[in-house]
Fold this protein.
Amino acid sequence: MPSKLSRSRAVRVLVGVLVCGLGSTVVAEVQTTPWPLIRVPDPLARRAAIAALEAASTRLADPDCAKILTDFQDTRGQALSDGLSSLGVQIQDYLPMITFMDDTRHRRCASGVLVFTVPGSRVVRVCSDELKRIGTQQPEYVVASFIHEILHTLGLGENPPSSSQITARVLTRCGR
């Protein structure tokens, strides 16, 4: 019969092997996704966020939609495209640098907001319940909302322009 010490050691080794094995699976998943900074645990909301980001990326690759980056200025009065230039990246390279994080319990989510951030922050808060509700009903609005928040991460303030003015401009430039 094994001693308590040897059983304890065996359990620690087994747990270590399992943790290492699972850890490599998680690392492999993060490395293979084009959106490594999506922190949305709900699988339906995560898929909706990825779909919105894929659509936003595709649209922002279009020169007409990309003009949205020169339509608005950051809080210092510079075009949003200048902020990208100062980082040395194009919009396609910038998008995966943004963290999209579930914040469903935030009070803003209870008021019907889909996504939100603070100008200049690279963290966009996702209201997963609202995203799941609206995602299939109004996909154009969802994509426009994600682009709208991407503009805020580049420093676009609000009021002025109002939230509805920003979204309207995004829909004009980038809508389908």
Q: What stands out?
A: The chain has two domains: 1-32, 35-174. The beta strands are 38-39, 99-102, 115-116, 123-126. The two ends are 71 Å apart (CA to CA).
